């Protein structure tokens, strides 16, 4: 029983790692304070779920989830191209509300608040990841590939251009670099990985509804990014593990679930506050939070 | 090389640039001088595409570049140094300079598949330039940890390394030591000998008149005099407007 519980936590950690390192690419490396990340997660989850329920194979649904979220990322980059800081945060937040409203109200497609039940567990080359342990292995492999790919991107000269945009967009433009294209790529790639995280979530829980993709779900991901440290992938992974595990002991103290939920948010808020005061760069951040 | 024709830029009631006209000849160092608020930096901002003019024309290398975006203007060959330091503060000196060398780093797929390598040639070029200004030991230091003078020098190097036909330098020696000022003067004169064209804004008259072939004086958004440094030094209108004599 305990091991099943830990396997569940490890799967959540894997999904959160993919979500957080992809948000790190936009926020920490490119300086795009994107509060619409959870919308890409939502698009990925619904795309994958709908395709799988329509009978498409898992690999197709999974990749389509990433590609569809990426398309939304590119789409979002067009109107938000000239926005920075707080304005960009507000615009992207607005985008996440729009996606939430669509998921809630386009009932003929998403079944609205009733959600999509019966999403099949992934199946690859005749093997079905029906038990949680096999699903954990799949999540681990996908999280590892995502980590290595994002690491390769940020370590490449292209990654340095992303950081240049974060540090001084005008100076980057004056060096002849098309910052619109660069920011679109950053948002698109970031959205792709959020989309595949959404696909994993949908196929793991086997049920999704719009309530899984609200601002409340973004808070832990954003906390992981900030606490891990801006522009630090290693810090993000460590923060994801800590933040997923941190509220868990509350379950064993015997508090009712009506207290555990809000307590989780309070713990995140306190931790964030302490980090901002005593360690503004997070665990191993390269850039100080402004 | 660069022709400014009846250029105007007003901010509300302030006529920052008001019918400005001048020409920069190729292979020369031209200084744009004038009191604070004369409109010099605004002309730079207009010529590098950061601002759009209300009217007038900017011709560079026989192409009309008025209203073009900064990226396009940079890729046509204008490299610009800002008055305020605009280094990428969380990147190292080397990374800052590598960014200037070409735009291959903006090609996502090429970089993802490792096809855009930092070659020995590129590294060698950066080392050579850093040696020239005595900062070779700072290659791997984050630029935010450099002193003001060092930052200025690295930014000047970055502007020079950015592929260009024309350099626009806004106060390249502001805040640097007299020794460093001499070094920068030597670098600029060497660049001119190599056939480069430079337009610079500078308040240090000793420095400016020492290296400039031509001086353009602006006041209240207009050009009030243009000529050789000696002519400008003795121009009564300039003396009154700029030097207050």
Summarize the helix and strand pattern of chain B as letters.
EEEHEEHEHHHHEHEHEEHH
Q: What's the main sheet of chain A like? A: 2 strands, antiparallel
Shape of chain B: globular
Task: Describe the sheet with the most strands of chain B.
Answer: 6 strands, mixed
Question: Can you list the strand order of the major beta sheet of chain B?
Answer: 6-7-8-3-9-10
Shape of chain A: globular
- Class from helix and strand fractions of chain B: alpha/beta
Assign a percent range to the helix content of chain A.
over 70%
List low-confidence stretches of chain B.
none
What is the number of strand segments of chain A?
2
- Tally the helices of chain B: what do you get? 10
Total count of strands of chain B: 10
User: Cα distance, first to last residue of chain B?
Assistant: 33 Å
Portion in beta strands of chain A: under 5%
Helix/strand order of chain A, N-terminal first: HHHHHEEHHHHHHHH
Which structural class do you get from the secondary structure elements of chain A? mainly alpha
Number of helices of chain A: 13
Question: By CATH's scheme, which homologous superfamily of the largest domain in chain B applies?
Answer: P-loop containing nucleotide triphosphate hydrolases
In words, what does this structure look like?
- With 290 residues, chain A is mainly alpha-helical.
- Chain A contains 13 helices and two strands.
- Chain A has a two-stranded antiparallel ribbon.
- In chain A, helix 2 runs parallel beside helix 4 and helix 2 packs across helix 9.
- Chain B is of the alpha/beta class and 245 residues long.
- Chain B contains ten helices and ten strands.
- In chain B, the strands form two sheets. Chain B has a six-stranded mixed beta sheet, sandwiched between helices. In chain B, strands 2-1-4-5 form a four-stranded antiparallel beta sheet, with helices on one face.
- In chain B, strand 9 and strand 10 form a beta hairpin.
- The radius of gyration of chain B is 19 Å and the shape is globular.
- The mean pLDDT of chain B is 89.
């Amino acid at each position: 029983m305990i091991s099943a519980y830990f396997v569940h936590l490890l799967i959540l950690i894997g999904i959160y790692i993919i979500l957080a390192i992809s948000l790190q690419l936009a926020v920490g490396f490119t300086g795009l304070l994107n509060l619409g990340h959870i919308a890409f997660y939502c698009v990925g989850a619904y795309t994958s779920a709908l395709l799988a329920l329509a009978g498409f194979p898992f690999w197709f649904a999974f990749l389509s989830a990433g590609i569809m979220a990426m398309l939304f990322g590119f789409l979002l980059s067009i109107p938000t191209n000239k926005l920075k800081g707080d304005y960009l945060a507000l615009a992207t937040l607005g985008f996440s509300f729009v996606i939430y409203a669509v998921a809630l109200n386009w009932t003929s497609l998403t079944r609205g608040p009733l959600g999509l039940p019966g999403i099949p567990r992934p199946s690859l080359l005749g093997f079905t990841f029906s038990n949680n342990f096999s699903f954990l292995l799949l999540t681990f492999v996908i999280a590892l590939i995502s980590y290595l790919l994002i690491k390769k991107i940020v370590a490449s000269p292209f990654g340095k251009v992303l950081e240049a945009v974060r540090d001084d967009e005008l100076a980057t433009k004056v060096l002849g670099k098309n910052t619109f294209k660069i920011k679109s790529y950053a948002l698109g790639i970031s959205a792709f990985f959020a989309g595949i995280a959404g696909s994993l979530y949908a196929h793991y829980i086997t049920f999704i509804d719009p309530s899984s993709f609200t601002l409340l779900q973004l808070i832990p991901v954003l906390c992981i990014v900030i606490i891990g440290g801006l522009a630090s992938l290693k810090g993000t992974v460590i923060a994801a593990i800590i933040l997923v595990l941190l509220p868990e002991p509350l379950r064993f103290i015997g508090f009712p679930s009506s207290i555990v939920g809000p307590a989780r948010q309070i713990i995140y808020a306190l931790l964030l506050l302490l980090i901002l005061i005593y360690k503004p760069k997070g665990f191993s951040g390269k850039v100080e939070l402004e | 090389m660069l022709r400014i024709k009846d250029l105007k830029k007003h901010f509300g009631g302030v006529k920052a640039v008001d019918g400005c006209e001048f020409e920069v000849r190729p292979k020369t160092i031209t200084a744009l001088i004038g009191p604070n608020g004369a409109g010099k930096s605004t002309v730079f901002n207009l010529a590098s595409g950061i601002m759009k003019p209300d009217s007038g024309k900017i011709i560079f290398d026989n192409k009309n570049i008025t209203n073009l975006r900064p990226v396009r203007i940079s890729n046509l060959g204008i490299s610009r140094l800002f008055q305020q330091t605009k280094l990428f503060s969380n990147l190292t000196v080397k990374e800052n300079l590598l960014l200037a060398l070409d735009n291959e780093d903006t090609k996502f797929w090429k970089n993802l598949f490792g096809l855009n390598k930092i070659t020995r040639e590129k590294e060698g070029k950066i080392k050579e330039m850093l040696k020239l200004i005595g900062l070779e030991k700072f290659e791997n230091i984050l630029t935010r940890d450099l002193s003001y003078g060092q930052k200025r020098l690295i930014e000047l190097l970055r502007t020079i390394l950015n592929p260009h036909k024309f350099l626009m330098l806004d106060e390249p020696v502001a805040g640097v030591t007299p020794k460093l000022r001499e070094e920068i003067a030597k670098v600029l004169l060497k660049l001119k000998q190599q056939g480069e064209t430079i337009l610079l804004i500078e308040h240090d008259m000793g420095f400016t008149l020492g290296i400039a072939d031509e001086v353009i004086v602006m006041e209240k958004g207009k050009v009030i005099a243009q000529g050789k440094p000696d002519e400008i030094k003795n121009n009564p209108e300039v003396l009154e407007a700029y030097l207050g004599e």
